[in-house]
Amino acid sequence: MIRSLAAEPADLHFDPATTALVIIDMQRDFLEPGGFGESLGNDVSLLQAAVAPIQAVLAAARAAGLLVVHTREGHKPDLSDAPPAKLERGAPTARIGAAGPMGRILIRGEPGHGILPALAPVRGEVVIDKPGKGAFHATDLGAILGARGIATLLVCGVTTEVCVHTTIREGNDRGYRCVAIGDGCASYFPEFHRVGLAMIVAQGGIFGWVSSSGAVVAALGGAAR
Ligand code: TIU
Fold first, then answer.
1. Residue ranges of E strands in the chain
2. Which residues line ligand 1 (CB under 6 A)?
3. Residues identified as active-site
4. What is the pTM of this model?
5. CA 140 to CA 163: how far, in whole Å?
6. Which mutation among 163, 167, 189, 195 tests ligand 1's pocket best, with the greatest number of atoms within 8 A of CB?
7. Taking a C-beta distance cutoff of 8 angstroms, is the pair 189, 28 a contact?
8. Has residue 91 got a pLDDT over 90?
9. What's the rounded Cα separation, in Å, for the pair 147 and 142?
10. Residue with CA nearest ligand 1 atom 8
């Protein structure tokens, strides 16, 4: 059944059978002290705001039978998939691969690389390990979505202006209708969150739409938050 979703700059219609919920990088490395996010000097508590809205849309998506995709940013233990430009950039207190309280920072298999227990994937959901900011770069995501005939992506997670934005831009260029779930995204910089969402909506929705967790839950048949 085709659903109507309240969004900016305009409402849109989607078919749950060809729609995926894409949850970007809700990992301990970004949301908990001692991980990658904090190593960059950020107040990681700011990202907590996205957790409850994502829990709501995840429950609604599961109930409606949507394809659910979780992504994790991280690298192989030997760092062979981490370009020097990424490893060298900035002046973090601890670099990617350094030992931290949640294991080696941003390394696959370490405790910090894991998704928050509150949003843990369940059987049948797709988990994409990505070395970059965008979920399509150097991953199987495009092939997985293509095999299922997916046309619309409901995107949430962290951070709004980095991995969420990059994924929406990648998805838009690949022909997907990309909808950011605004309150299901968060940034270490509240201003970047606000402007990041505004950039998507501007110019008639130049590379997507912005909706809300309540609107997504309502469209999927649950109670609006
Ligand atoms: N630092 C920051 O804002 N983000 C990242 O490094 N990765 C993601 O957004 N996942």
1. 3-5, 12-14, 19-24, 67-73, 99-100, 103-104, 126-130, 152-158, 177-186, 209-211
2. 25, 30, 40, 73, 133, 158-159, 162-163, 188
3. 25, 130, 163
4. 0.97
5. 17
6. 163
7. no
8. no
9. 9
10. 163
